[in-house]
Design goal:
about 375 residues, alpha+beta, 4-stranded mixed beta sheet, 11 helices
Amino acid sequence: MAALTEEQELLKEQAKSWANEEAPVSKFREMRDARTEEGFDRGTWKSISEMGWAGILVSEEHGGVAMGHLTAGVVLEELGRQLTASPLLASGIVGASALALAGSDAQQAAWLPRIADGSAIVTLAVDEGPRHAPLQTKLSATADGDGFVLEGRKAHVLEGLAADAFVVAARSSGSAGDAEGLTLFLVDGDTAGIDRSRLSTADSRGYANVTFTGVRVGADAVMGEVGGAAEVLDRILDRARAALSAEMLGTAAQSFDMTLDYLKNRVQFGQVIGSFQALGHRAATLFTEMEMARSCVEAALTAIDEDADNTAVLCSLAKAKAGDFLHHMSNELIQIHGGIGMTDEFDAGLYLKRARAAEATYGNQAFHRDRYATLQGL
């Protein structure tokens, strides 16, 4: 476990206390049952923004606190424990990272302060099919006068229905599968030609498919180098992967705590079932997996903060390990609870559904094992 600073410890306690009291899993259940259009509660998002968490990665110059990715991970882990739905990951982490890494001075000045205070939601639109495949981008960006015209479709865009602006990965040259020819654009959500359709997903969060039909943007919408965005897109995605891994770790850790509590209190044949050796061994194995996943997640977040050479390797390792543990733990949560674990009244199903959706986002375990091996030259 990483040695947190006193400031990070205080923030962790604040996030844990707030999530338990103001945004517990029961509030997520209420939102799911109400079929909230945007997939999150605006009041919850307002509270998160007022506490400054939306600006954790944003520089002080642009209204944030610039506390780094490990600090952001501390907050996301606690929100993941309660399945708290909000645009913090999509906008406060991914959108802010995209602007910090690839945005022009004007783009940063226009959007980062609004991300930091929660008044704007900026999200990344990258994938175009059911699988995470950034290089398979087909959405076209055709030069037109002094700007570009975007044509194509993005799938499964996080907070896509509520987004005020999109960071869009488009192909300005080359063919799907090429690393060369990718360009990032910052597109206002109100631009003519953008159509959004809400997705109804297992985890009841805010996703949308977004279609771009003849969307005209100026040259000032380009982020970074025309045709040379593959490298910076990967760096943005690594920040997304590490942050989501932290949230997944929290979801899995809460699942472990719920299971351990059941093992300590459920009595059968005159004994608590945790005293049965077979179940004790299962709990010990899960605890070991949890600590392994935690080490990988914290290493990835620290590597980003230190701009380490092996950041990409550690981010793929973190996403794969967090995905493996969350998959296993969410299954065990239901199996060890037996029949009640299968009921909708019990929270286990909510954790399992969130687990499956998070595993697939920004690359599943298979994607990251392959990327890890490739980066290692295997």
